[in-house]
Every structure is written in structure tokens, then in C-alpha cells.
Amino acid sequence: MRKVGLKVAAAGFALAVATLASGCSSIRDHRGYLVDQTLLDSVQPGIDNRVSVEKTLGRPTFESQFGSKDWYYISQQVKTPPFRKPRTDSQVVLRVRFDAADNVVGIDKRGVEQVARIDPDGRETPTLGRKRSLIEDLFGNIGAVGAGGMGQAPVGPGPNGS
């Protein structure tokens, strides 16, 4: 009877550990366009145009603003570890290139190697110039040559001048 109780307790402990460990796993999420390789393979350069691409692949994620009006389809797999910020796990960027007559010229496929990680520099943006304290900002003009408000009468045309 005692061995059966130990086995039940061990099984309960293993179940509790498994439940706690599953709570610490990363959350996976998909963002953006769902890439269907069959549909992508059906778009043929020289045969398809903007209208047929839109009917086959749908509206693009965005259209280029400069140069040729290429269409981009973005697909991302994002992983969020417990108590941390989401990170891009994998990414696919599809670029559909068009000629002047809106016919498909080519389709390019890129991966996560195109992602640029930008790390901002702390809480402040570095600027050119001197670093001054609050006191220097408030009282920095006292005694400066030509500073206005030093008791001099205004000279020249104006409401108080001649």
C-alpha cells in the first residue's frame, strides 16, 4: 500500500513539474502575409500583371514609394519568451517587380538576413553642442556682452525709442 502511495505522489509531482515547465515556454505568433507556395509558383513573369497578381496573392503588405512601384508581401514568425520582448524568429519578404506596362518582371524572395537590429542609445538622443546644466541654462546669459535687459534704453524707432 505504501509503494502505491509513493507512485501516485511521484506521478503527481511529475505532472506538476510538467505543468509549470509548460508555462515557461515561448509563445509563437505569425504576423503578416501567409505565404502559399502553390499560389506563389502560379505567378509567372511575362504572363501576369498587377490585376492577376492581386487576384492570386491578394493586396500587398506595402508598395514601394520611390522608383519602380514594386509590391512587397511580408511574413514573420515571432517568438516571445516568458517575461521578455518579442523577437523575429523567421521572416520572408516577397518582392514582385513590375515593368512600365504593369507586367510582372520577376519575384524575389528574401529571408531574415535583411532584418536590421537597431539598438537606441539609452534614454537620450546625443546632439552636437555643449552640455549645460539646468543652472547654466537659467543663468547663463547673466553678464554676457550685449545681453538685452541690462538697464539700457532702447535706441532707434519703436514704441519707446525716438
UniProtKB/TrEMBL annotation:
One Pfam assignment: BamE
Residues spanning the signal sequence: 1-23
InterPro entries reported for this sequence: BamE-like, BamE_dom
Claim: Signal is one of the keywords in the record: yes
Domain spans labelled Outer membrane protein assembly factor BamE: 32-106
Protein's name according to its UniProt entry: Beta-barrel assembly machine subunit BamE
Keyword match Transmembrane helix: no
Keywords, alphabetical: Membrane, Signal
